[in-house]
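Notes from hallway chat w/ T.B., transcribed later so I don't forget. T.B. wanted the structure written out for a chain they're using in a teaching module, and asked if we could keep both sequence and structure tokens in one place. Agreed to drop them here.
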Amino acid sequence: MAALTLLTVIELLVFLDTSVVNVALPSIGRGLGLSVAGLAWVAGAYQLTFGGFQLVGGRAADLLGRRRMFVTGLAVFTAASLLAGAARWAWLLLAARALQGVGAAVVVPAEISLLAVTFTEPKAYARAFGIWSAMGAAGAAIGTSLGGILTQALGWQSIFLVNLPIGAAALLLSGRLLPADEPGRRWRGLDLPGVLTGTSALLLIVYAITTAADRGLDLVSLATGVTGLFLGAVFLRVEARTATPVLALGLLRVRNVTGSALANFVIGVAHVPAFFLLALYLQQVLGYSPTASGFAVLPVAAGGLVLARTVLPRALAHHGPRTVLAAGLTLLAVALAGFARLPLHGSYLWDVLPFGLVLAAALPASFAGSTIPAVKAVPAADTGIASGIVQTAQRVGSALGATGATAVVSAWTAHHAGPHLTVYATGLRVAFAAAAGVALLGVALTFALIRTADPARPAESPTEPSPAHH
């Protein structure tokens, strides 16, 4: 239980940092003289490296040891948090945020791998992944509220410095609470071309998607995206030929790995608009302050945590992750469809909260149900890279979801006449409806691509190179 608490608290911490800066951005801008574009990268730098380095982080966990890489990633994340909190220059804050993302990208695959190999009894496994999934979902919701409180009370630096005592305590406890790595683990030759091409491809693709949300599909974002896709193709060719790949292509032939990755991509595309668009509705349409809108989504975090400790483990144990994933995506579609009916002069209690509670049930079920099939479908030695694949897919989907939601709202307001607030609210509803459609597509993909997880792990690794490659 102590190991589970440690791992899930760190899960909450790294996902909290995806949103904790949002309310603090005006204060950061005044303090460091950052422009609006610069402030966008205070949030974007973390998301960019968090998405771009997870494949390498996952493979490192398999080859160098899960606990070792969890501790390494957490040390990087904690040190970068100190740098961010102490930053007196804009460039240092942006560099620290990027370094935080690298640390998080190493932590998360190692953390998932540790959960998968530590909690092997079916009920304990279901409970562990249920709580883990709720903590990730809660992190993003809590971050907005906590960011407002800390910024107002202690200054913007505190939103980063709050990570220090938690990170330091976790580092001290990791050696005592987490299982030791198997002896003799080592990096069997660094696939440097694969590391460089794969990481560069992911960074460029996420960068292109993120910048397109701010300024549209201009020449820079288009060229960056095309270059990223080209490097992705080069990466796959490199991995097919090397004896020690970062991503053995045999993993992509494992049906539950590819199915989980696609499901995670869809979840990323669909669930980010739920928070992003809801914040816009509460602030721009109902007139809430940023802090008040942050508190308005706290029931999503609280409800998710309660359900993850009660209903979700039993559902996973009795019905399996595929059914739970389909149910989670269905509930996500229901919540988004409910938000697509938000009126111009809506009530938080009657129009927002009920579907927020549906969202609270949807997210932990979706996160757990989309991750378990992949990590159960591979040997224990490959759980790190399997989790890296599915988490990378979700990060890319999240970037695309935010961009798509922004594009829908902008296009609607630009091409429809009428009172601005009325047109804007309608644009938000259209974007919510589009996200609901994506979630429903995810239900169909779940049943088409993911098989019921076999309780027995495969003994042989699809990542082992064939003799022809030696």
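Follow-up for T.B.: The chain has two domains: 2-179+246-457, 192-245. Might be a good example for the class.
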